[in-house]
């Protein structure tokens, strides 16, 4: 689902990189800028992820606390089920854990957010980044290279080990969301299921050609 993952597979399994074909995931049509916007009663920063260590929510919570000290009206909404600690979600001043949110409700949640933040330390691709962009929401994402392809040049990036870096990036996104949103819409448009299907078919065609040669 990404060049980063393809390289990881080739290195881990010790196979030739050219045998691994990349088919980026597509974004469903419901993820678009027009439509219902979720109202949580306050402007909110959104994080969409399972509650587990890899998702780096501790750093996001610290960063949000710093942002909220200057913007007390702001809330942090976390959408995702508890993972390693069943039934225990993030807590804190201004933090709202929404638990699992059905896919059908995610577009409105993305559209209603002032900024979407993805702080993960490692991913295969990072689909919430692209879904957020497709909904016209500015994105701040971890600078880990596994998120390079999902983020492109359209997200503000931050060191996943630094709450201060995320604080700065969130502030910048809140201050000037328009350009980020436009860049995100353009970037997200490339991730279609048709493009995914064509990449899969192309991979099979390559295999068949190699078998015949």
- Radius of gyration, taken over Cα atoms and rounded to an integer in Å: 18 Å
Low-confidence stretches: none
Largest sheet: number of strands, sense, barrel closure:
6 strands, parallel
Tell me the structural class.
alpha/beta
Q: What percent of residues adopt helix (DSSP H or I)?
A: 40-55%
Global outline? globular
Q: Strand order within the widest sheet? A: 3-2-1-4-5-6
The ordered string of helix (H) and strand (E) elements is HEHEEHEHEHEHHH
| N-to-C span | 27 Å
Mean pLDDT: 95
Q: What is the number of E strands?
A: 6
Number of helices: 8
Strand fraction band?
5-15%
Structure keywords:
6-stranded parallel β-sheet, single chain, 213 residues, alpha/beta, globular
Descriptive notes:
The chain has helices spanning 3-13, 57-70, 106-112, 127-134, 148-151, 163-175, 177-188, 193-212; strands at 44-48, 75-79, 95-99, 115-118, 139-142, 156-158. The chain is α/β, with parallel strands linked by helices and 213 residues long. Strands 3-2-1-4-5-6 form a 6-stranded parallel beta sheet, with helices on both faces. Strand 4 (115-118), helix 4 and strand 5 form a beta-alpha-beta unit.
